[in-house]
Amino acid sequence: MSDALIFDFEEDKVRDECGIFGIYGPGRRVSRITYYGLHALQHRGQESAGIGVSNGKDIKVYKGMGLVTEVFNESILKELKGKIAVGHVRYSTTGSSSIINAQPMVFRYYWGMAAFAHNGNLVNSNELENKLGEKGAIFQSTSDTEIIANLIARCEEKDVLSAVKKVVSTLEGAYSLIIMTQDKLIAVRDSYGFRPLCLGDLDGSPVVASETCALNTVGAKFVRDIKPGEIVVIDENGIDSIFIENRERQGLCVFEYVYLARPDSNIDGKNVNLVRLELGRQLAKEAKIDADMVISVPDSGTSAAIGYAQEANLPYMPGLIKNRYVGRTFIQPTQKMRDLGVRLKLNPVREILNGKRVIMIDDSIVRGTTSRKIVQLVREAGAKEVHMMASSPPIKYPCYYGIDTSSREELIAAQKSIDEICMHIGADSLHYLSLEGLIKAVGLPKEKICVACFNGDYLTEIPQYHEKIF
């Protein structure tokens, strides 16, 4: 319909580009294991899903638009037979949302076939694409992954591993990458370590995944995090490790702890849920409010809200209930119906909120649109006061490393003061966690994490092309 409007409840959230999973498991139903691994990583990408398998001679891939459970069924998984598998769930940031950009992407080389699954974003992709184009390269997608594959194809090295080592030295930005050949599984994490990647073991079968929650889901034991600048090679001879570059300055995205990762995951030695509890405790030390209770914007703000309540000696109450059976995006025919959209996702509990002074905690505020709707919901349920808090600092700068934080013009903290944002969302007060408090709560040295979205201190040079886009 011509007057249809799209309401995206998650529009006030940062979104990661994708999740990746791989297994080297001769004798196992690797496609089914990968299916469950991707299901555990669904929060990292909800636009497309794909699985590729190798039987030692050929690589077969099946992928489609939608959630993992929508793309795959029993008959499809039965057809995906092999001893190695790689999987991918995607949310587009730089490339468009279409099946042509779905992964894994498969390419034929003179030495054989390879399937690629990539999480992250290259900041020099435009430069690399132009150079490849001048040499006659043809691109079928708008994904950085195809650029990496083309660079490998043009290497004069005699084997894939040598080519990978040579190519990654030319890449700038974020790339946690799994490459499956006909007989190998190769995992690469960029030298800054922007995006997470870990190694596990499933009764002797090596497993690689974006997060440890995927290892737990398939019954694999966590072995270790793949280190920044490391290439892990898995084949019939076992596991080998090669370092492409060691940097003292690293940059794990701090938003993995704030919002992106699943609470039950451990990333670089830190449990995500425990970090979020500490974010809330630190927020309570910085922002003391006289209130009756603490509630959260579920589910992303819940752990921080519990931590705040514990530190402030206030009760944590389930003032907002999340409907888990509503899709992330839906279409409504009228503005009135669109405004009701948030109610399909969140429902306030009037009996808890009525007449109360409420502290409401969310993980972040990106554009302010959804925060405004939620504050209004809580007020309509009878709350006497609504004090909004974010368990992260104001997001003032876009991310170029694989997270969709849009243009700076759309980031409300880049355009308004905290008082102006408070007025915009209709809260009685608004408090953000300080950057110093965030780093303290995460518990990692500031030289090991990336906080560029808060202070503009990017770890790599940002090309002018990206500056124009963002």
Summarize the structure in words:
The chain is an alpha+beta fold and 470 residues long. It has 2 domains: 7-247, Aminohydrolase, N-terminal nucleophile (Ntn) domain (Glutamine Phosphoribosylpyrophosphate, subunit 1, domain 1, 4-Layer Sandwich); 271-469, Rossmann fold. It is 31% helix and 27% strand. A 7-stranded antiparallel sheet has the order 5-4-6-3-12-11-13. Strands 7-8-9-10-14-15 form a 6-stranded antiparallel sheet, covered by helices on one side. Strands 19-23-24-26 form a 4-stranded parallel sheet, sandwiched between helices. Strand 9 and strand 10 (185-189) form a beta hairpin. Helix 1 crosses helix 7. The radius of gyration is 23 Å and the shape is globular. The two termini are 31 Å apart. 52% of the residues are buried.
